[in-house]
Design a protein that fits this description.
Layout: H1 26-41, H2 46-61, H3 64-67, E1 71-73, H4 85-93, E2 97-105, E3 108-113, E4 118-119, E5 128-129, E6 144-148, E7 151-153, E8 158-159, H5 165-169, E9 179-182, E10 188-189, E11 207-209, E12 214-216
Parallel strand pairs: 1-2, 1-6, 6-9, 7-10, 9-11
Antiparallel strand pairs: 2-3, 4-5, 7-8, 11-12
Length: about 220
């Protein structure tokens, strides 16, 4: 496992209510880990977030599968996530078609082409593209799928926000299309020390990119 930077490790003792409490289930363990990571993300300054967005674009554009792609699924980043705005612009300038998700509710989302223009929406997902809706199956046209995450461990397990949108979308992918997660560098975890809790529906990612590096899984 490559080096880790960061903000320390999750204090698992804070998950249980008391020493006599039973071991927490996977759902509770995921919730505790999400709360820990969200708290760490909230401490990042505007300058750190801006630098992360620029660095992320540079790292992603170095990936051979992205350089060879004609279509990439991406997403509009939330303020605490590594910013994707410079990456969206860079992919478009490279002539790569970018699809962005549109939240439908009930754990489902479809896709629209990124024209560079967004509209704000209420609820989950943040801003969304203004272009024509292409349906849920449009993900099958992607050569690479870049997904958000709160953390990734060294076995490729992904911790998402918990709404299940990508759990439902990724099974629609064409075979052998790489799924690459985006996180801050300190959110790449050593599975031997700090494994991400896993449920049966969780899908491993093929690689992870951060604003300073990329890692292949497997």
């Amino acid at each position: 496992m490559a080096r880790r930077h960061g903000t320390g490790t999750l204090d698992h003792s804070s998950i249980a209510l008391s020493p006599d409490s039973p071991a927490p289930g996977v759902v509770q363990a995921k919730a505790a880990m999400r709360a820990w990571i969200r708290a760490q993300r909230a401490t990042r300054s505007l300058q750190e977030r801006q630098a992360a967005a620029v660095g992320l674009a540079a790292v992603v554009l170095e990936l051979p599968e992205v350089q060879a792609a004609k279509c990439v699924c991406l997403y509009v980043s939330m303020p605490s996530e590594p910013g994707t705005t410079p990456l969206r612009t860079a992919l478009a300038n490279a002539g790569i078609r970018v699809l962005l998700p549109v939240v439908l509710g009930e754990g489902q989302m479809e896709w629209a082409q990124d024209s560079g223009e967004l509209r704000p929406v209420r609820g989950l997902g943040g801003a969304e593209p203004v272009g024509p809706r292409l349906g849920r199956a449009a993900i099958r046209t992607a050569d690479v799928v870049l997904v958000p995450a709160l953390a990734i461990d060294s076995l490729g397990h992904r911790l998402g926000q918990g709404a299940g949108y990508y759990d439902r979308a990724l099974p629609l992918l064409a075979p052998n299309v790489p799924v690459i997660a985006i996180v801050h560098d300190s959110e790449v975890l050593d599975a031997a020390v700090q494994p991400i809790p896993v449920e049966p529906h969780d899908r491993r990612v093929d690689a992870v990119v951060t604003p300073v590096r990329h890692l292949r899984i497997g």
